[in-house]
């Protein structure tokens, strides 16, 4: 039983492969760059049961011209802030409404954030805040003032205990004087209280000086933080999206550099300073009075027990009023928010990150490598729908995802931020679920539902995500909506979740057919969405061959009509999308859809795709349901591609003009001449034209120093000299071609290693053709003797030996291309003086490449040269020359 594959489209013909049994399905043929292909379960289709599709037929040639041209994109709405919706597909353009909303929300959030931080810093610095209603700063001024005064007083007293006191010396002298007056050998005893040891004094001073350092450090860092906050809110001009990107970049850098953590940690320094002061006080009193020391220690212990308990309660219960920055930070560390998007500094790198859930992703060439601009846009939208509490703002951010470009590279950020379940919830909110009678759904907002559908498709493109079953009934209801764009988008969502149902894909073709017939009007965004969905369905289908071929008969006429209707819009995205779909359905190639996400890529390869697709249709038009008027469309489209086709078919004319000197240096720019030589490679010339062409190439080599011209001229000479006629060899020698190519080889030593290889190959081709002519000519050959003598008298062998000795070459290149021709030349002229240097140079080269491919062949060639040059020093005749190199 034959395997049915989409690659069968590649060989069109009248015969058709036998239809396989219905239980066998083709393998998925999609290929995405850096893809991760996994089996996807499609056991539950989202296609609506019992839905039928009719694709209307319309002759596009007989219809009124330009009846349904793709409408150009109009100007954006003026009143974006008033809630007027953006144009279809313009939801994230430069002046889109979502960026106005983002800027307003960000301004309010940044104002509250910076004002809160600024007031907190003012409290730490003891500055007066007259804008505060309750004036809490005055209380803190009293606290910081009392703390500074008490700390300074205690430090002054404790520091004096570390210095030698003059009063102590005086007291000792007085005691000794009294003892002398009383003629006593022992001084009288002086009553004294408890004394602190030197160790305790040092501990006390260390703790209190550390407390003073903490308080002063708090003031220094607070002043720096004030400057950071002033730099965070600069005045930025430009479009709304530019201002949003600038703000989001500053915000992400603010978090990446831990500025919030630093500012929130400033009060901790004062808390630490107070703790150090209490610790020093307890140490000081411990040896003086135990009761007072215990009382002080109990009070301090109670205060800090309450301090740490308040942090613990706030950590366990976020609703507790005992809020503290430490509790907030610990809560983030212990249970990080999965919806928080990573900063651009982490997502803009080019290292591939592994997928957390391989079964969730089929292909996604854009999941790991995100451009900086796309990462900023994604994090801005994620910040908006995660941080805002206004449902209208969240809806606007989620709906804006529908307007992201096809090649948006940061969709992974939005998926990781939790956008997909929010979009599904927002889509559900566009309906009213009547629970009184049979749980019926009633559509409330069709336009919002369409935006949510497009956003869902944008996020799930290239993943194994399918539309949730619990809201599939509202999706079917949207398919029946009177608004054609909303119904078509809903059908796209159904088709992308129903790869095992061809009817859902045929319904997309029906929408395009009605659009080309003038029965309905669809926006350019909707048409592109339908065409992209068709391409993905065609690539990922798992259908029997008979269904695939039936689809080709239905799809090709519709796609041709789409191309006909957009003939006046060469830059239309619809045209490039239709060309890609037509190529997939006609040629059946394994297309890497990840490469065609970019519109620039599609337009760059538009001609190539169209030529192959239209050629396949012309070969077997009946196979694709193309006849009569549709063939006229194919002819018109091929006529528009005449320029690249003529460039390939008119090479003979270019060759004649170049050989005649009409296209030469001075007549055309060097870049144009290089392009012409590139276009003429490989040359397609008759025997009489080759000699003139070689002469012109040698003139070009001698007069031009342009690297591209030199490269292509040498490559053309190599092809022309390979197994050429005697006339071509004579033209090459008489036009000084040997010296010109040798000069190019020397230039390659500085400019291009590739030029060296091509030059040596050209010379070896000349030698091979000369020796072949020498062996096949039964009579004398004075012309060939002149050619060989000119070669031996030139600098070729010196240049060859210097090139071989100076660089490391691929040994197979030497043994397979260079030495065989040189061996045959040695057989003809074994008495030449060059062979000794050749043997020495190539022998040393071989010794540097022992064991590599071509090593044994190189030694064999060198052994032949050595044997021939040593045994016979006289020229041999053509009859005596033997060898199987040219057989």
TrEMBL record:
Transmembrane portions of the chain: 203-225, 262-287, 294-316
Protein's UniProt keywords contain Transmembrane helix: yes
Keywords for the protein's UniProt record, in alphabetical order: Membrane, Transmembrane, Transmembrane helix
Membrane as UniProt keyword: yes
Protein name: DUF6535 domain-containing protein
Biological source species: Mycena albidolilacea
InterPro entries with a match to the protein in the record: ARM-like, ARM-type_fold, DUF6535
Coiled coil: none
Residues covered by the DUF6535 domain: 99-287
Disordered: region residues: 1-95
Skewed-composition ranges (Basic and acidic residues): 78-88
